[in-house]
Amino acid sequence: MEDVKILVDLVCKAFRPALLDLFRSGESFYYCTFVMTGEGHAPFLSAWSEEALARAVDESGEGPEVAADLRWSYADSPYVDFGSEYTEKLRAPFLARPSLQELGVDEWEKEIELRMDAVEQAARQLDAEGAFGAGQRRSRLIVAVEIMPPVPSNVDRVARLNDTNSDIFKQWLEEAAEVDG
Q1: What is the pLDDT along the chain (181 residues), one digit of tens a residue?
Q2: Where in the chain are the domains?
């Protein structure tokens, strides 16, 4: 458990100033995600705002239907890897963790779960501090901790971090969630 607490503290310390910088733009953000790869690399930040989506649609020249493809795509966001000057400090601590290539399947799964749990706890702590806003602003924002490529457990983490009765959660669940079945 001490390993998780250390990672939670490091993730909070790295993402806190990145989130402050992101939200200073004054844009209407609806999606903010901490992304990790299936290899367990350090997380990075990506986000979408209504204004950024409108700019991307305009720049695409493809018309409004392209918005559906972009709306929840962390990789296509102009805010992908936002705040990397802060979050790059996470690379060394994550690299210092056990090497996933040297672990057996069970140990690999436990290590990925530990890392994802730490990032989720950090997102929850930052949310409690008000880093994602409060009231109406927060109710219009999906906060996610996701592994890419998408895995079904992403839905569980997003559900734990958000009001599952909110309109934005229902929209995300319908349009973006990777679920079995």
Answers
A1: 577 899 999 999 999 999 999 999 999 999 999 999 888 899 999 999 999 999 999 998 887 789 999 999 999 999 999 999 999 999 999 888 877 778 877 887 888 889 999 999 999 999 999 999 999 999 999 999 999 988 889 999 999 999 999 999 999 999 987 755 4
A2: 2-175
Q: How far apart are CA 157 and CA 142, in angstroms?
A: 11
Per-residue CA distances from 8 to 12, 24, 99, 141, 177 (Å): 6, 24, 19, 22, 25
Q: Six-digit token pair at 78?
A: 């102009």
Here the tokens at position 171 are 């929209």
Distance of CA 35 to the CA centre of its chain: 5
